[in-house]
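User: Reviewer 2 asked us to show a designed sequence for the structure in our supplementary figure. I'm pasting the structure tokens here. Could you produce the per-position amino acids so we can include them in the response letter?
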């Protein structure tokens, strides 16, 4: 079909960040005049009309480095996990802190920050966007359809691995930029460690005082609180409850991902990508 394909040297650890950088490099070698690159994840399809809308916006917005839109799940009703992904993509419209894997990116800003950090096994998009924002670039999300994504998640184990990967990404990003004024990813790391640490402490204490187990009732109370918040947004109790339960329980696999990153740092092991499908 005439498409240029880059074969990566797999003797070097694979990351999506590395693949994106190599693709961008090859594209710019073919045509150094390219001003914008549309990155698309391999499990996504660009929606009709997106490129024109994104291009029109970024051409008129000189301070925007990244423009993204609404990513949707192709089969949201196939499983509760797919539906959770579809809700995850529904982020606020306007100026944002980060984008996902699908985005139209200004080459000048991309080069200024040396692209994606190829050592990251996950979370490379928010980390690059953070570095762009440090140079006063803006990340914008438009209120229009961008891509269809196929999470293809049908099992709890897939959901668990995906959140474990997210935890690793939080920890690694905090390690890189946590000492900045923004304290990048501190909130996510701290929240996971506090909630998981609290649960472990309670379970240990119940060995001496079983009545202390009642303290874990804070979890259903937290789920109720989150459900009340989400139902105002989605106007759907079942969706709000499902999202609240997932957000609460996901603290545990995310904490495992954080601990995995810490272990690898201590023992100087190479982190390997965590694939959920």
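Assistant: Here is a per-position design you can include in the supplement:
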């Amino acid at each position: 079909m005439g498409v240029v394909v880059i074969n990566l040297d797999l003797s070097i650890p694979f990351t999506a960040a590395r693949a994106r950088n190599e693709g961008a490099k090859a594209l710019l070698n073919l045509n150094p005049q390219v001003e914008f690159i549309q990155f698309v994840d391999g499990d996504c399809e660009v929606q009709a009309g997106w490129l024109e809308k994104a291009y029109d916006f970024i051409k008129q917005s000189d301070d925007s480095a990244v423009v993204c839109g609404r990513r949707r799940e192709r089969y949201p009703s196939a499983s509760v996990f797919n539906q959770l992904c579809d809700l995850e993509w529904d982020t606020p419209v306007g100026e944002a802190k980060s984008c996902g894997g699908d985005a139209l990116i200004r080459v000048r800003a991309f080069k200024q920050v040396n692209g994606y950090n190829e050592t990251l096994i996950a979370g490379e998009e928010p980390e690059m966007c953070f570095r762009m924002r440090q140079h006063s670039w803006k990340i914008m999300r438009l209120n229009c359809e961008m891509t269809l994504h196929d999470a293809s998640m049908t099992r709890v184990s897939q959901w668990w691995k995906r959140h474990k990967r997210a935890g690793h990404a939080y920890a690694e990003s905090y390690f890189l930029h946590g000492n900045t004024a923004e304290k990048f990813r501190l909130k996510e790391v701290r929240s996971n460690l506090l909630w998981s640490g609290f649960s472990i402490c309670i379970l240990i204490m119940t060995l001496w005082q079983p009545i202390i187990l009642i303290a874990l009732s804070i979890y259903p109370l937290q789920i109720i609180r989150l459900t009340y918040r989400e139902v105002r947004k989605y106007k759907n109790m079942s969706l709000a409850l499902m999202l609240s339960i997932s957000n609460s329980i996901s603290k545990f696999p995310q904490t495992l991902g954080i601990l995995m990153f810490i272990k690898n740092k201590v023992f100087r092991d190479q982190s390997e990508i965590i694939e959920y499908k």
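For the response letter, you might also mention the following. Residues 16-147 form a domain with the Spore Coat Polysaccharide Biosynthesis Protein SpsA; Chain A fold (CATH 3.90.550.10). The first helix runs from residue 16 to 30.
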